[in-house]
Design brief:
Chain lengths: 346, 385
């Protein structure tokens, strides 16, 4: 069938206009020439208002995540790939295999179509790389001044294989706490752009899909107790969430936490604590002490877990404190984040 | 991190801790006030007290710029921010300081006031340049460290002919606060605050030098050791204070020689002297009205003075009845002594100013140290594997 658009979208000089969200021909053209063309897959090509997909047996996992990062493009990634990785990771942290994504776009009038295409193509690349197709979506346009270029909400579904039971409430005293790599890369990459602070070296976001790493970990230790990606609020916040959910305390060692030298320096300079800075391609795992070394080995054997480390252990504590033995030799609480360290980073 | 890690070295910390334990006379108690919030923060964040013997006690002082701002001045800042056409530029910490009527700058912002967080006075000058039709008021707070940048901004605004740049000046002076504490009845007569010596300010001293402290050391016979904000600086300063006390000396010593000289930064001092003059008195939260303890703009720069342009009048507003910030800022009480601590007053919902800034004694204790307030049974279990 011949498409009814007389002129192709002008990706060089064009901008998002209100008509791109009004449900008319302009919207249909944007959907076809950009979204369907980029995400191209069987379910999407059918052009229904929903996607019909096959689901293997197992427990269904659903996760949703809205992405409002500013700036839209940053070293190591952009809002597009971030919106794929973020949701794929949320699904994977249940020990699930992510299967499909849905994407909702809120576009601000005036956004250059070139930027939108760059974002959508980055999303498509991330989705193909992860093997998780975007099978349905939605587009809305808001007036200039009512958005910040583009907001993207993605929803992911996946299936947990039988025998796997991962939850933030399963940490037990005696368990061991691991991280998959260096902390704080993403947040510092964003912050250094936003404040127009340039450093001698460029710190890149660590944005990545972690389901491959999770699968490799579960293959070796199917009985992992907890998995979580320390995004907003960083490692400190994630550990506090896990401690509260499981009703336990956690003690970590400051000198065991991997942090890049340049991230540490940037944090020192900006007055931030790397433990509270966001990550987009790292995970925290808690497992039984007997499994810890094998799990660490499996993580380090995977490219996304090269710098994995055991950072602490779970203890009994009715107050659910996360404590840290400082490299200096004292001990302190690692508390929930108060207020905002960095605005709008993911 | 070069030039940083050296000052946070665990092995050196342990050996300094051992030296303090060895040299502190077992039958004697040592109480040292760290004046600055920066020191309070370092002590809590790195767990410095874990390395000190039981008879060496640190007393938190009032040196947290946000903490000492009285409610009345925050109310005035909100009043300015609500004026039509005004942009109030402020350092981040002040946004959450509780004001009258359950307000704060953050809440006033949510209600429509144009409050912008800035990192420096330079950002505020830029705002004024970018918004010629608006009046941009810098909510200037802080001790001697932040005063020169405010003076510089005023000079720049003058040079650029920026008539829409104003300063709401709340700059305060360290030496007057220290003498006020030393003159307070708790220290002089009642002996409820056993101060044997001071850890002197780090960054403030880079500006004013070590000389202003010589007066206290001599007049009040209290040793002062100026120290940097790194935890090893603090440990070294404590050891130096213990030695002075043991030897019956009361001198000004400088541990922070890598940044502080006796004369300080004379260029900055000259700049401040050119733009500012002493206020007859200024209200501090916790300390009350302290004579000659704050600065205001000289007549020559009256055009940049928000207080004068808007005809603002100082007002006295009482703190929350049960809030112990005042006593904590004087070193009379500790955060855990306050009924509100950790219950009604938390960093998310601060009632008192000491809970707001990360340099405040309550926030530091809540964020880093409150596990000590509970039974050590569970908290002490399990070292790092």
């Amino acid at each position: 069938m011949k498409r009814g658009f007389t002129r192709a979208l002008d990706f060089r000089h064009g901008q998002v206009e209100m008509t791109h969200g009004s449900g008319g021909r302009a919207m249909a053209q944007l959907v076809e020439e950009l979204f369907v063309a980029s995400f191209d897959n069987e379910a999407l090509r059918r052009m229904d208002d929903q996607a019909q997909v096959e689901v293997p047996p197992g427990r269904l996992v659903i996760a949703t995540d809205s992405h409002v990062v500013s700036p839209l493009f940053f070293p190591g990634g952009d809002i597009g790939c971030l919106s794929v990785h973020g949701t794929v990771n949320d699904v994977a942290m249940a020990g699930a295999r992510p299967l499909y994504l849905a994407a909702g776009f809120i576009l601000e009038e005036g956004l250059p179509l070139a930027d939108l295409r760059r974002i959508v193509e980055s999303m498509a690349r991330a989705s193909r790389g992860a093997g998780v197709p975007v099978v349905t979506g939605d587009t809305k346009v808001v007036e200039r001044g009512s958005g910040d270029g583009v907001f993207i909400t993605t929803t992911g579904v996946g299936v947990v294989p039988p025998g796997v039971d991962v939850s933030g409430s399963r940490a037990r005293p005696g368990d061991v706490v691991l991280v998959s790599g260096t902390m704080g890369d993403h947040g510092v990459a964003i912050m250094s752009l936003r404040e127009n602070l340039s450093f001698g070296t460029t710190i890149e976001s660590d944005t990545a899909a972690l389901h491959g790493l999770v699968a490799a970990m579960l293959a070796v230790v199917p009985g992992i107790h907890c998995l979580r990606d320390p995004t907003r609020g960083g490692l400190a916040t994630t550990l506090n969430e896990l401690a509260r959910q499981s009703g336990v305390g956690i003690v970590i060692g400051e000198d065991r936490i991997p942090v890049r030298g340049e991230v540490n320096s940037a944090c020192e300079f900006l007055g931030l604590d790397p433990l509270y800075v966001a990550n987009e391609g790292k995970l925290v795992a808690i497992c039984a002490a007997d499994d810890a070394q094998r799990l660490l080995g499996a993580m380090r054997a995977h490219p996304l877990g090269r710098d994995a480390a055991i950072i602490g252990q779970v203890i009994e504590d009715e107050h659910a404190f996360v404590q840290m033995d400082t490299a200096f030799g004292g001990r302190r609480v690692v508390d929930w984040l108060t207020g905002d360290q960095l605005p709008r980073i993911c | 991190m070069k030039y940083i890690d050296e000052f946070r070295d665990g092995a050196l910390a342990r050996s300094l801790g051992a030296a303090i334990t060895r040299e502190a006379a077992p039958g004697r108690r040592y109480g040292f006030m760290e004046f600055c919030g920066g020191h309070t923060h370092a002590i809590a964040r790195y767990g410095v007290t874990d390395l000190l013997p039981g008879n060496v006690r640190m007393i938190h002082g009032p040196g947290c710029p946000v903490c000492v701002l009285p409610v009345g001045r925050v109310d005035m800042a909100i009043e300015i921010a609500r004026r039509p056409g005004v942009i109030l530029a402020t350092y981040g910490d002040t946004m959450r300081v509780p004001a009258s009527g359950r307000l704060s700058l953050l809440k006033a912002k949510a209600q429509g006031a144009d409050v912008r967080m800035v990192y420096s006075t330079q950002d505020a000058v830029r705002l004024a340049e970018e918004n010629p039709g608006r009046e941009v008021v810098m909510f200037a707070i802080g001790f001697e460290t932040t005063t020169p940048p405010t003076a510089l901004a005023i000079k720049q605004a003058e040079a650029k002919g920026l008539a829409n740049f104003l300063v709401f000046c709340n700059h305060v002076l360290t030496p007057s606060a220290i003498s006020h504490i030393l003159e307070s009845p708790e220290v002089r007569e009642l002996g409820t605050v056993p101060i044997d010596g001071f850890i002197g300010p780090a960054h403030v001293s880079t500006i004013i030098g070590s000389r202003p402290y010589e007066f206290f050391a001599e007049e009040y016979q209290k040793p002062v050791v100026i120290a940097g904000f790194e935890p090893l600086d603090v440990m070294q300063a404590i050891l130096m204070l213990v030695r002075q006390v043991n030897e019956g000396r009361a001198e000004v010593e400088n541990e922070f020689t890598r940044a502080v000289t006796r004369e300080g930064n004379q260029k900055a001092q000259a700049l401040v002297a050119e733009v500012f003059e002493l206020r007859r008195e200024f209200e501090w939260r916790g300390l009350g009205a302290v004579p000659y303890s704050a600065l205001r703009l000289k007549d020559k720069y009256a055009a940049f003075d928000a207080e004068r342009r808007y005809g603002l009048v100082d007002r006295q507003v009482a703190d929350h009845k049960a809030c112990e910030c005042g006593a904590i800022l004087r070193g009379v009480k500790q955060p855990a002594d306050c009924k509100l601590f950790g219950t009604a007053c938390t960093p998310e919902n601060p009632l008192g100013s000491c809970m707001v800034s990360s340099e405040g004694a309550c926030a530091a204790h809540y964020t880093y140290g409150r596990f000590r307030d509970f039974s050590r049974k569970s908290a002490a279990g399990g070292a790092t594997p």
